[in-house]
Amino acid sequence: MARLFFYGTLLDADLRRAVAGCEMMVEPAWLNGFRRVPVKAAAYPMLVASPRHRVDGLLTQEIGKRVLDRLIRYEGGEYRLVKRMVQGADGRLAEAGIFFTHPGIQGRLHQDWDLSVWQRRHKRKLVSRKPAA
């Protein structure tokens, strides 16, 4: 069992359900010391260290191996799962797996990634490709 912190496309409930194959229980949380920026030449984000910033996201409840495996396949080879401490809306710290890009992946550091822009421009195409089973 594991808990994950989502900060990018998986913040979208429809995509999260399609990728996981089920509803996931999530709660607001944040990760201190990072910024969310777009990956160069891509529609999805990555995290970059930034001591004065924080990234708002969602913390899952405990998930099983089947769902975790689906999420790992969705994230693909550009990402690795790293454990970090995140802060929940209740103020408590929780250990969570976070998908960080592998070294060498570059981001567009001059801008922040925006979920609403991704939803308008890219969501429909991606969600329609993902089977719900």
Q: How would you summarize what this structure contains?
A:
This protein is α+β, with helices and mostly antiparallel strands and 133 residues long. It has helices spanning 13-20, 65-75, 115-129, and strands at 5-6, 26-38, 45-60, 79-88, 93-101. The chain is built from three helices and five strands, in the order βαββαββα.
The CATH topology corresponds to Hypothetical upf0131 protein ytfp
Gyration radius, rounded:
14 Å
**How many separate domains make up the residues?**
1
Distance between the termini: 21 Å
**So how many helices?**
3
Contiguous low-pLDDT stretches (5 residues minimum) are none
Overall 3D form: globular
Helix-and-strand structural type: alpha+beta
Overall pLDDT confidence? 92
Q: Give the SSE string.
A: EHEEHEEH
The helix fraction, in percent, is: 25-40%
Q: Roughly what fraction of the amino acids lie in strands?
A: 35-45%
Subunit organisation of the chains? single chain
Give a quick account of the main beta sheet: strands, pairing sense, barrel closure. Answer: 5 strands, antiparallel
| Topology, number of strands | 5
The CATH class is identified as Alpha Beta
Can you say what the CATH homologous superfamily is? Gamma-glutamyl cyclotransferase-like
Query: Would you identify the CATH architecture?
Result: Roll
Q: How are the strands of the biggest sheet laid out side by side?
A: 1-3-2-4-5
Task: Describe the model.
The protein is an alpha+beta fold and 133 residues long. It has one domain: Gamma-glutamyl cyclotransferase-like (Hypothetical upf0131 protein ytfp). Helices cover 26% and strands 38% of the residues. It has helices at 13-20, 65-75, 115-129; strands spanning 5-6, 26-38, 45-60, 79-88, 93-101. A five-stranded antiparallel beta sheet has the order 1-3-2-4-5, with no helix packed on it. The longest helix is centred in the last third of the chain and has 15 residues, at 115-129. The two termini are 21 Å apart. 26% of the residues are buried.
